[in-house]
Amino acid sequence: MIKNSQAGSVILTGRQTEKNDDCACPDRAFILTFDFADGQENDCACPDTLVATTSSTGANARFHQVRELYREQIWDGFWLVLSPYAPHGPCVLSEEAWKRLQDFALPGPLSQPVDHILVEQNLLVPFNARSQVRLGKPETLTAWLHVTNACNLDCPYCYVRKSSASMSLETGLRAVENLFVQAQENGFSTVKLKYAGGESTLQFRLIRSIHARARQLAQATGLQLQGVVLSNGTTLRPADADWLLENNVRLMVSLDGVGRQHDLMRPTKDGGSSFAALSQAVDKLLLPRGIHPFASITISRWNVDGVAEAVRWALERELPVSLNFYRQTQSAPGDLALEETAIINGMLAAYAVFEEVLPTRPFLNGLLDRVQMDAHLQTCGVGMNYLVITHEGKLAQCQMHQEQSTASIADKDWLPVLNHGWIHNLPVDDKDECQVCLYRYRCSGGCPLETYRASGRWNAKNPNCQIYKALLPAALRLEGLRLLKANGYLH
Ligand code: SF4
Ligand code: SF4
Predict the structure, then answer these.
(1) Looking at the structure, do residues 126 and 193 belong to the same domain, yes or no?
(2) End-to-end CA gap in the chain
(3) What is the pLDDT of residue 170?
(4) Given strand 70-75, what is the order of strands in its sheet?
(5) 433 lines ligand 1 (CB under 6 A)
(6) How does 206-229 read in b/e, with b if 16+ C-beta sit within 10 Å?
(7) Residue 28: pLDDT above 80?
(8) Which of the listed residues 361, 394, 420 is the one where a domain comes to its end?
(9) Is 194 touching ligand 2 by the criterion CB < 6 Å?
(10) Ligand 1 atom nearest to 468, measured from its CA
C-alpha cells in the first residue's frame, strides 16, 4: 500500500508481508520514507537534483545488507535507518521490516514485497557489486540578484561591504534576459531568482520589474520560474506582501533570536531594535495573508543561547526554519566564531523544541547548516548551477565573494567562466577525510569556502565536522519521530 499524505510530500510505503514461519504475524513489515521536494531556503544555493544513487546489479541476483548502516531504535517497534546511498535520507522500519533487513546479513535473493523497498532505499545492495553515487544533470539554474548594496541594518556578521548603490533597471533586465539565454543554451529546465542585497526590499519596485520580465521570458521559453526574496523583514509594506502572494514568490526573513537577542545580532544603523518591525511584519502583514516566510537563523557565539527561543517563536507561527552557522569573514568580529560545545548545546536545546512541537511538515533539511538529505556530492551549486549577479552586473561564484568577480553579464557564455572560478567546490568523494564518513552524501563536506579558510585546502573536511557529527544523530531521530507522527503512529 502506498499512501500520500495531504501535504503531498510524505510517503507511507506500507507493505503487508507474510511471515515465513508458522506463527501469526501481529505486525506488518512497512517502511516510512520521505520525499524532500519542498526545500528550505537559505542564502546559498542547493546543488539541485545533481546526483542519482545507483547500485549496479550486473547478472548477480543476490543482495545483502549495506555495510555502512546508520541505525537507531527510535520508538518501541520502530527503527530509524540510513544507508549512505539512500536517495532521500532516512526511513523508519517497523519491527518486521527491521527483522527482514537482518535476514540479509548473508546474501540472498529478493523474495518478499518489502525487499524491493529495502533495495529502493539502498539498505539492500547487490552482493559483490559496488554501490556508488554519480553526478546527475542539474535542472535548475539559480541566480542571486544583488539588487542593492544598501541596508537599513548593521549586522556584525554581514559579509556585504555596504554602500548606497543599487542595481539599475537596465542592468536588472539585461541580467535576467541573458540568464534565460544561458539557461536555454545549457539545458536547464528551471530558472530560480534570489532577490538579495543589502536589504532587497528597499528596491521592491525594481524586484517587481525584473520579475515581470522574468515571467515573460519563462512564458516565451517554456522554462519554469521560481523566485524568492531574501529580507530582514523590517521594511515590507502591505503592497509588497500582496505582490509576493499574487506572484507566487517566496520570502525568507532573517531571525536571529527573540527581542534583545535578535537586536544584538541585527541592530539598526543607530544601534536600535529591528525585532519589533520584523515581528510586526510577520504577525500583521504576512500571516494574515497566509504567507509563512522561511525563518533563517544564523547561529554564532553571541546568540547560541537564544536559538531555542527563536525556534519556538517561529514554530508557533508555523514558519519553516533554517538553522545556519555563522561564517567567518575578514570584517566580522572574531568573538562571533563558533565554539563547539556551546553550539552543540544550543542546537540540542533548539531540537528539543522541535521535538516538543513536532511539526508534521518536513523540517529536517533546515536543522543543520548546509546538511541536506537528498543524496548529493557537492554542498552547494557553486561551479555548476549557481551564480551571483552583482548590482553592477558582474558575475561571481558565491555571494560571499562578490568582489572576486571576473566576468560580467555582457559576456557571451557565462557558465564556463563560473565553472573555472577561484572556489573549488569539490565532490565529497575527493575530500580525503570525508571519504569514509557515513554522512558523506548528506553533508558533502560543508561550505567549501569555509573549509579553505580554515585549512588552506579544498579537499579537507569542514571545520564544523565535529559539530555535524555530534548533531546528525539527533537531527535524524527528529525526522524519524516526525515520520511516525505524520503517518499516525505517534500522537
Ligand atoms: S565534513 Fe565531517 S561530517 Fe561532513 S562529510 Fe566530511 S567527515 Fe563527514
Ligand atoms: S561556497 Fe559556501 S557560502 Fe558560497 S554558496 Fe557555497 S556553501 Fe554557500
Answers:
(1) no
(2) 22
(3) 98
(4) 2-4, 10-14, 30-34, 91-94, 78-82, 70-75
(5) yes
(6) bbbebbebbeebbeeeebebbbbb
(7) no
(8) 361
(9) no
(10) 3
Question: Which of the pair, 339 or 416, is modelled with greater confidence?
Answer: 339
- Say what the pTM is: 0.89
* Spatial contact of 336 and 330, defined as CB atoms under 8 Å apart: no
If asked whether residues 102 and 167 sit together in one domain, one would say no
CB of 44 closer than 6 A to ligand 2? Answer: yes
Q: Give the model's confidence band at 60: pLDDT under 50 very low, under 70 low, under 90 confident, else very high.
A: low
Give residue 154 CA to ligand 1 midpoint distance, Å: 33
What is the residue type of 418?
A: L
All cell numbers assigned to 108: 540472498
Q: What is the pLDDT of residue 318?
A: 97
C-alpha cell at 231: 529580507
Lowest mean pLDDT among 114-118, 166-170, 353-357: 114-118
The answer to whether residue 26 is domain-embedded is yes
Query: Ligand 2 pocket check: which of 41, 43, 44 to mutate, most ligand atoms within 8 Å of Cβ?
Result: 44
CATH at residue 186: 3.20.20.70
Among the candidates 361, 387, 422, a domain finishes at 361
**Residues 106-131 pLDDT 10s:** 999 999 989 999 999 999 999 888 88
Q: How far is the CA of 422 from the centre of ligand 2 (A)?
A: 12
271 lies in a domain? yes
- Specify the ligand 1 atom closest to the Cα of 442: 5
Q: Which domain holds residue 93?
A: 2-40+52-130+474-486
Identify the pLDDT of residue 39: 60
Residue 215 reports pLDDT greater than 70: yes
Quote the crossing angle between the two packed helices 95-103 and 113-120, to the nearest 10°.
Answer: 80
| Residue 462 CA, ligand 1 centroid: distance in Å | 7
Averaged pLDDT score across all residues of the chain: 87
Please provide the DSSP assignment of 34-85 as one string: E---S----SS----S-EEEEE--TT--EEEE-SS-EEEEEETTEEEEE-TT
Closest atom of ligand 2 to CA, residue 45: 5
